[in-house]
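ugh ok so i messed up the first submission bc i forgot one of the chains. this is the corrected input, ALL of the components this time, i swear. 297 residues overall. if the numbers dont match what u have on ur side tell me asap before i send this to the collaborators (the ones from the other lab, u know who)
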Amino acid sequence: MSTIELVAGEVRASCVRAGEQVVVSFLGTADAQVDAQLEGFLGQVHAMIEREPVAEVIADLRHLEFMNSSCFKAFVTWLVAVRRLPRASQYRIRFRASERHHWQKRSLHALSYFGGDLITIEAG
Amino acid sequence: MGEESDEPRAGSPLPAAFSMRFSPSNQLISIVRRFVLAFYGRVLGDNETSGLLALATHELLENAVKYGINDEASLAVEVRGAAPTLEIVVTLRNQARAEHAAAAMAMIEALRGCEDPFSFYQALMIEAAGRQQGSGLGLARIRVETGMTLEMKIEGATVEISAHMRYEPGRSG
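and heres the new structure output, hopefully the right one now
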């Protein structure tokens, strides 16, 4: 099992890989204080998957209270990086969202449209 | 008969306004966002709408922190009009450099002029992925993800950006 972690400002994130399963979990608030760190964290996640490919990554946002536009951009950058991989190396991202945090529905709709068939959203 | 009462009526969200003048910081922005979320969630009885107001508040305040030329900003959130259709306005006023004010004005005019804000937002997302600093998405995010329309006034170095929503109590979304 391998782990990548981010602790910055009001956000906590971790990426845990166990075999073929990769789960990236977020907690707290991702705002302007942490946008560069978040982008770096997602870059590390992407690099790890490039080295050891998987078909799907779970991005669990259920405990992410809020995300600002510059952190939203970090996810856009991640999606672009996945899109730039050769088709056979691209992996899907399954977002787990919370209906309690209403912003997630609209932000993930925009992200899913941007990412096309790479993106799946699980509302819960 | 016919005179409006200042007393809150059952089912009416009015009065429901506040304003604050403070030195915004990234730490304070989340506190204010949470207040807006909780206050309007309770007053309107509508957590989805209060979430939209909270998002607009957060993005406008972050603009003030990023582009303000001093440590002062004014925020106001106001529910206006009379049922069945109200208007909710989030207004941020601060002082900014002319080039940043002009960039914000250009974005707001582009958003007002485009036929399909969602497609415009998607195009901005592509641009954002190549940006080294900032996202350039904040104002478009307000327009597209909250459905609020944006207006802006510039008087000297003072910049006022307001986000407007038509609201019918009892009909969220």
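quick check: The helical segments of chain A are 35-51, 69-83, 103-115. that seems consistent at least. The two ends of chain A are 27 Å apart (CA to CA).
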